Amino acid sequence: MKLRINTDRIIGKRDPMIYGQFIEHFHRQIYGGVYEPGSPLSDEDGFRRDVLDALRKIRVPVLRWPGGCFVSAYHWKEAVGRERKPSFDKAWRVEDPNTFGTDEYIKMCRKIGCAPYICTNAGSGSAEEMSDWVEYCNLENEGRYAKWRIENGSATPHAVRYWSIGNENYLGGEIGAKTKEEWGRLVEESAKMMKRVDPSIELSAAALSDVEWNVNLLKHAGRFLRWISVHSYWDGLWQENAPADYETCMAYTKTLPDTIQKVRGLLTAMGLEKQIRIAYDEWNLRGWHHPKVDTALTEEEYLQPRDKNDLNATYTMADAVFAACFLNMCLRNCDIVGMANYAPVVNTRGLIFTHPEGIVLRSTYHVFDLFVNYMGDVAVDGFAEDPPVMNALNRKTGETAMVDALDIVATRWSDRDGIAISAVNKDPASVHTLVLEPAYAGHRVRIFTVNGPSPDAFNDIGREEISLCAGEPLVYEEGMELRLAPHSVNVIQLS
Ligand code: AHR
């Protein structure tokens, strides 16, 4: 395939927050995941040093917390201060010790070097509880909550810039679900109170690609919002843990742009596309497995099955290729997509799996390493002549999708010469090649690749099939065909 690049036609400068992450009080993400006081691998504050090191390596820009469904019944005041009493988490039907709360979260963000992004309880919570949280985090010392923060050991404000109101309150299963009429007014009044505490915060609110929900939200609260939050999972595993095979996952890539296109269209129609950006603040190819959470009577039925999220064999090159296609989509839309948060970052279906002796970096971790550390920060126009296509059978629906075999985005740097092209080969079996324009003859070229020996390759304890490898430096010659291996994620750097 021939690729034509015009580095003068700029799509936009990507916000680094498109490489954001999410962590929830669910299963082993927090307790027994990143936060494990007493582990020989943890630091003086109880955080796993190996996890922090891995997060710093992919330069996590922003970390959304504490949920997710969890947040819709969470009361933040129960998890700050010297006296912490356990709560019963009604979202996930487990006891939360509350030993990890706002102050521990902020400490973790400081250790990682990322911005905090707090999702508030718009389920059972109130505008007052949300705005009290902003007081606790962002006021110098005015009022009881800022003074409480100081009493708890943080003399200076936590300075949390990013806040979202609610999590999926449009879903019937969410605690404190709302109608579209209720939602617009609740967000309006909550946003008003939160902004009265700190007008500098950037607010988002739970939304989706539903016109009526979003119109009502934006009509009532649009003036307060800088972001609109959307979520997507493509391989629904909530009730049955039957991960889709590689080809089915490639079929899912057909619908990748749908949500962004719909939300972009609505923001534009309402004249808000310059004021409000999209925060894709939960995304993952695979939905989390938590069956019968609202019906099962025994822990064997609803709690133990959650361990299946930890099966590392689930996370193959399908997850890596899909994640790369998603990040390419964010780059193509970086004029309006300003944040995206992989759901989640540690354990469950995350980038990093923890165990008592160390961590496993799953296939998707290496994709973030590749994009964060090897791609440019300015997305530019790229045009493929005669792009190859492939059929992908969705074995869960029986339908066959025709998809592009290659998914390509070109970038350059804002502060130095050169270009970086992310080139994903979705084809499970065939090599595809890329030919650049003659103008690139004589340029030094190097290909960095994330791949494994098969589409179903995965990493596990004592098993590293997938890694990020640097190819030999070459000098590009006119007509040279750059080889993209089957089921591979590549960044081609030209200097
Ligand atoms: O499956 C986990 C849940 O997915 C998150 O808690 C929620 O935000 C999303 O529906």
Please supply descriptive tags for the structure shown above.
single chain; 495 residues; alpha/beta; Immunoglobulin-like; TIM Barrel; 10-stranded mixed β-sheet; 8-stranded parallel β-sheet; 26 strands; 28% strand; binds alpha-L-arabinofuranose
Describe the structure in your own words.
With 495 residues, the chain is α/β, with parallel strands linked by helices. It folds into 2 domains: 124 residues, Sandwich (Immunoglobulin-like), CATH 2.60.40.1180; 363 residues, Alpha-Beta Barrel (TIM Barrel). The protein contains 11 helices and 26 strands. Strands 1, 14, 17, 18, 19, 20, 23, 24, 25 and 26 form a 10-stranded mixed beta sheet that branches. A hairpin with a 2-residue loop joins β12 and β13. α3 crosses α4. It is globular and about 70 Å long. 50% of the residues are buried. The model has no long low-confidence stretch (mean pLDDT 97). Bound molecules: alpha-L-arabinofuranose (AHR).
